[in-house]
Amino acid sequence: MKRCVLFFSLIVCFVFVLSCRKSAVPGFIYVPGFDFEVMTSQGTSSNNFTEVWMYKDEQPLGVFALPALIPVIHDGKAEIKFFAGIKNNGISDTRIRYPFITAFDTTLVFIPGNTDTIVPHFKYEELCTIEQQGFESGNFLVELAGNGGIFSAVTDDNLVFEGNRSGMGSLNSGAGKIYFKDDTNRDFLGGEMYFLEMNYSCNNKMSVGLLVTEASGITKELALIVNPTQSIDGAPVWKKIYVDFGAIPQKHPQALFYEWYIESIPDAPNKAVELYLDNLKWVKWQ
């Protein structure tokens, strides 16, 4: 009798193990890339979404650089969501879901061992506002005290990122620094999100921040120091960055207005500096 019970128990365990092995066979989602759609009023489709954040039935499955082959332990139907991910301030250790981009939502029927291919389609959230600033109509930056460089709109195809013009700042060897601002007065509120999207290229570190005007005077607040990029045969290599300005208004609840600035101080003696800008977008919630 004991032998029969033991034999039956072994059979049950064997069936259970086989069942576990079967259920542990994943299905796969292959994500080769994504589409990003913009309206005419939203400017460039240039982006730097570096990964996707994936959820299954509202539960996080992970963050995946593209292209990605993602294993999913599930048999049957499930709701899948993808969110666009960025490096906040261009820093690898501060990866976030970019809040102003819609989720891509779909339903899949998973079959263990099968692979489904998905190309997420992203666009801006309807409730965000985008203020575009470019150089198609010329340079809009104004020099600040201490500036020794020049800033202009260039049309050379080898220098322009897209469109007909990009902004170019240059500094001759030993001329001091590049120091300009956009004199648009912006009304930022503490606790709100404010991102500056920007295409750029530079052969020297450059700083971006806000000049905060209060009743007591003007305070210079650094947001980010941007590292140099490379050039190929003298042509700029362009990158895209998302600069988070949300922390600065929290420090200045009595601010009257804010102005954005850019500054580049040569990081070597007598170094000539060149920097390029295009497609500036201020993005915030309505």
Plain-language structure description:
This protein is mainly β and 286 residues long. It folds into two domains: 26-126, Immunoglobulin-like, CATH 2.60.40; 129-285, Sandwich (Jelly Rolls). It has two helices and 23 strands. The chain has helices at 2-23, 247-251; strands at 27-31, 35-37, 51-56, 59-65, 68-72, 76-87, 95-97, 104-110, 115-117, 121-123, 128-133, 142-143, 150-154, 166-171, 178-186, 194-202, 206-214, 217-226, 231-232, 235-236, 239-244, 257-264, 273-285. Strands 11, 13, 14, 16, 21 and 23 form a six-stranded antiparallel sheet that branches. Strand 3 and strand 4 (59-65) form a beta hairpin. The protein is globular and about 65 Å long. The chain starts with a helix and ends with a strand.
Low-confidence parts:
1-22
Helix content: under 10%
Instruction: Report the order of strands and helices.
Output: HEEEEEEEEEEEEEEEEEEEEEHEE
Structural class by sheet pairing and helices: mainly beta
CATH secondary-structure class of the largest domain: Mainly Beta
Question: In total, how many beta strands?
Answer: 23
Q: Which architecture name of the largest domain does CATH use?
A: Sandwich
The fold-level CATH name of the largest domain is: Jelly Rolls
The structural domain count equals: 2
Question: Using only CA atoms, what is the Rg?
Answer: 26 Å
